[in-house]
Amino acid sequence: MSTHTIVQADWLVDNVFLLRDRHAYPVLMTQPQGVNGSDLLPLSLIGCAAWDVLSISKKQRLAVTGLRVVAECEQDAEPPWRFRRILITYQFSGPALHAQRIQRAIELSQERYCSVFATLRDAVALESRFEIVDAQPAPGDSPEQVVIAFNDALNARDVDGMMRLMSQDCVFENTTPTPDGARYEGQAAVRAFWEQFFAAAPQTQIEIEEIVGVADRCVMRWTYRWTDRSGMAGHVRGIDLYTVRDGLITEKLSYVKG
Fold this sequence. Notes:
This protein is an alpha+beta fold. It contains six helices and twelve strands. It folds into three domains: 1-36, no CATH class; 40-133, GMP Synthetase, Chain A, domain 3 (2-Layer Sandwich); 140-256, Nuclear Transport Factor 2, Chain: A (Roll).
């Protein structure tokens, strides 16, 4: 069964229109003191999507403290200026956010709940991505929560978020080259490694198999999956040994099977 709604637009003066939604809530459409009529389409899309994603995130008990949704649009240069592509970027902030849950919230919005997305996807190329722009742990977080927040930032390819969770004198030991792995000391060296790491592999994901913390130490067993620039996929399994002090990772030592 379908539903029936009514919205309206009233011409006021010159190029000024007053739009009203189904509840008669007003929106002024004009330029430059009001909303652009063409922009209402992507605004409607991200408004609908943001509402759904935030609602689902709350049900998942994600501590979202901030959400910004940006639509980057491509339109024809000539009339009727048809929309061809819309890239939606979700920017989340909050303590210990879980990247896989955020991804699932976005998928549920797009596949099941957002009426505007469902209507437009057959007419416009719609793409979406997300970023965790503030992965700071909440005060008093356990070492496990700090490490999970770090891993979420890593899976979001958010180097800034990762480094905010590491101390200035942090140490990272990679799994390669054998037999001891490369050692990086300090924020600058560790940041440079992660930037090169993401540049070499356009698709990466670290899945947590198990995580255990005792005092300021944490052990995380993981599976790392990637796709390189040639399209070749692969995975390895291993563990990380973390030291966490005052809510920041001071040491991350990585070991791999095989």
